[in-house]
Amino acid sequence: MTKVKICGIRNEMEARWALEAGADALGFVFAESKRKIDVESAAHICAGLPSEVMKIGVFVNETKEFLEEIYRDVNLDYVQLHGDESADFCHDLGLPYIKAIGVKEKEDLVGVGHFGGGLILLDSGNGPYRGGNGTTFDWSYADASTYHQQMILAGGLTAENVREAITKVRPYMVDVSSGVETEGRKDRKKIQSFIREAKSL
Questions:
Q1: DSSP H or E segment with residue 3
Q2: Which of 21, 51, 152, 164 has CA atoms 20 to 30 A from the CA of 110?
């Protein structure tokens, strides 16, 4: 069964909604974003999570020292790198990592194998931000990848399209943020619907 990550958690209530609905992972954004959370708040939320729930921090072009500090202080399970981090940087980091790849064209997946050793997150490259734009990409590009066992699929996923996405791409995990929001805030019913659809296959 495909795992589900609810990203952009900003408070305990949102975390509780996600857990009650069956989320396998929660994402906390430490990069500049409308969903950014401070370290103290994230650490407080993570301290109350069950051990089996993955705690993932989202970063863009941060230093190794900063990543190590937040990883330790928040007690994260993974750092998700949404910037221009190289394969060498990821390998030398010494932390469990998820490398996000923005996909506009099939050619954007060339070299994905160089990041082997961590999880790969395929997100839409369409939109003004590094992630959370609510846009999709052509899922047939992802199907050409040989990394299904370690792939996380993101980008424009909603309760209405997640079943189709999982069927076509067969990812290890699906990642949603804006697709479970109403007017920029997490929506409990949308979280429930998304996870129910994702786990119905």
A1: strand 3-6
A2: 164
pLDDT exceeds 80 at position 128: no
| Residue pLDDT, tens place only, 84-112 | 999 999 999 999 999 999 998 888 888 88
Spacing of C-alpha 194 from chain mean position = 15
User: Which residues are paired to 25 by β-bridges?
Assistant: 5, 54
Q: Is pLDDT at 133 greater than 90 in this prediction?
A: no
Question: Could you tell me the residue range of the domain that residue 88 belongs to?
Answer: 3-195
* Residue 53 domain flag: yes
- If you ran DSSP here, which 8-state letter would residue 77 be given? S
Query: Which CATH number characterizes residue 98's domain?
Result: 3.20.20.70
Angle between helices 188-198 and 12-21 (to 10 degrees): 30
The structural domain count of the chain equals 1
List the structure tokens of 160.
């209405």
Beta-carbon contacts of residue 59 (< 8 Å; ≥ 6 apart): 30, 31, 66, 67, 70, 79, 80, 81, 82, 83
Q: 13-63, pLDDT tens digit by residue? A: 999 999 999 999 999 999 999 999 999 999 999 999 999 999 999 999 999
Strands 181-182 and 185-186: antiparallel
